[in-house]
């Protein structure tokens, strides 16, 4: 059964909540399949701010997980998942600005991605068991300083600026992640469009592989790679990630 969770400020209070039929309800238990709605807090329209849907200790990102994206950047198809870290300080929520670090970079790119939210401590799990450690899924934008990525020869600086990891607005549990439509729009124009069925490495393989490298803690997020169509944004542009059944994540570049 699908359940939609949100972290937000509503009526002046920070709340973890369950969303149903356009209304926001207090949670009687932590986010997860067993969570039941409590008191009605208001409607989604009354949410004053959407917070990042989780507070990860780390965001583990996957590079080149769509064949067409690997081809467009001229890199070989990886034999195993190519992973890197985005710091927790890069995380922002739906509606928060993405700050263009103009002193260091002259090209900032969008990257629409599916986010996997970990639900319980995960270490050295098999692909067969991996989905049992997943709380749910969210929209993500792996914002990247593309010129620095090329210049540095490794990806830490280009991926790690404050505000370079928008997530949200929701975490949706009970979703099959194997074939979801994913779209990026910039100022209303579609610039990326694909399906998660085009992953080189599917979700269970990613969770298992990463868990053999590092322990994944509850609330950690894996972002799963971006399809072809990457491109630059400028100050004032509105980026919108849409993923089937998960909602839409919007952030403006400032």
3D architecture notes:
By secondary structure, the chain is mainly beta. The protein is 12% helix and 41% strand. The strands form three sheets. Strands 1, 2, 3, 4, 5, 6, 7, 8, 10, 11, 13 and 16 form a twelve-stranded mixed β-sheet that branches. Strands 15-14-18-19 form a four-stranded antiparallel β-sheet, with no helix packed on it. A three-stranded antiparallel β-sheet has the order 12-9-17. A hairpin with a 2-residue loop joins strand 2 and strand 3. The N and C termini lie far apart (38 Å). The model has no long low-confidence stretch (mean pLDDT 96).
Write a compact overview of the structure shown:
The chain is mostly beta strands and 254 residues long. It has helices at 67-72, 127-130, 146-152, 156-159, 203-211, and strands at 3-10, 13-20, 23-27, 37-43, 47-50, 59-63, 82-86, 91-92, 108-110, 112-118, 134-141, 144-145, 165-173, 181-186, 189-195, 221-223, 231-233, 238-243, 247-252.
In terms of topology, how is this protein built?
Elements: E1 3-10, E2 13-20, E3 23-27, E4 37-43, E5 47-50, E6 59-63, H1 67-72, E7 82-86, E8 91-92, E9 108-110, E10 112-118, H2 127-130, E11 134-141, E12 144-145, H3 146-152, H4 156-159, E13 165-173, E14 181-186, E15 189-195, H5 203-211, E16 221-223, E17 231-233, E18 238-243, E19 247-252
Parallel strand pairs: 6-16, 8-13
Antiparallel strand pairs: 1-2, 1-5, 1-13, 2-3, 3-4, 6-7, 9-12, 9-17, 10-11, 10-16, 11-13, 14-15, 14-18, 18-19
């Amino acid at each position: 059964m699908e359940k939609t969770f949100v972290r937000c400020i509503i009526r002046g209070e920070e709340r973890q909540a369950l969303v149903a039929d356009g209304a926001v309800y207090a949670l009687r238990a932590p986010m997860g399949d067993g969570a039941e709605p409590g008191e009605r807090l208001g409607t989604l329209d009354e949410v004053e701010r959407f917070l990042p849907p989780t507070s990860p200790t780390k965001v583990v990102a996957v590079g080149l997980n769509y064949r067409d994206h690997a081809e467009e950047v001229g890199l070989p198809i990886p034999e195993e998942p190519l992973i890197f870290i985005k710091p927790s300080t890069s995380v922002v929520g739906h509606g928060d600005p993405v700050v263009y670090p103009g002193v260091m970079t002259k090209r900032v790119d969008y990257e629409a991605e599916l986010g996997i939210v970990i639900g319980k401590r995960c270490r050295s799990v098999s692909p067969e068991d991996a989905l049992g450690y997943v709380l749910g899924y969210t929209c993500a934008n792996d914002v990247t300083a593309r010129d620095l990525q090329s210049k540095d020869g490794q990806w830490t600086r280009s991926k790690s600026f404050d505000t370079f990891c928008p997530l949200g607005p929701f975490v949706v549990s009970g979703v099959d992640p194997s074939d979801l439509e994913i779209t990026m729009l910039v100022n209303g124009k579609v610039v990326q469009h694909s399906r998660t069925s085009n992953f080189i490495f599917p979700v269970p393989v990613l969770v298992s592989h990463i868990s053999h490298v590092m322990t994944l803690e509850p609330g950690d997020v894996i972002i799963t790679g971006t399809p072809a169509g990457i491109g630059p944004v400028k100050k004032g542009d509105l980026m919108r990630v849409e993923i089937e059944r998960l909602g839409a994540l919007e952030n403006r570049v400032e």
